[in-house]
Specification:
The protein has about 70 residues and is mainly α. Helix 1 packs across helix 4 and helix 2 packs across helix 4. The model has no long low-confidence stretch (mean pLDDT about 90).
Length: about 70
């Protein structure tokens, strides 16, 4: 997976969005998000499927934030 996807996921993990909200919205286990956030699991060890799910959620969250700002 690419640099852009990685940056998007890092931004999501470092955001104010709760671990529960990320897990639920992305469809990944809470423990996976928590482990990525606290460094227990490296982003380099994350599966491609998890990365895709987190990236999709991050993009959706960004789009919603953009819509709220401009509407």
């Amino acid at each position: 997976w690419g640099v852009q996807m990685r940056k998007q996921i890092e931004k999501l993990l470092n955001s104010d969005i709760s671990t529960s909200a990320i897990a639920k919205g992305a469809g990944v286990p809470w423990s996976t998000v928590a482990d990525l956030r606290n460094g227990k699991t490296s982003m380099d060890k994350m599966s491609l499927l998890t990365a895709e799910k987190l990236n999709d959620f991050a993009e959706k969250s960004e789009a919603e934030k953009h819509d709220e700002f401009y509407n």
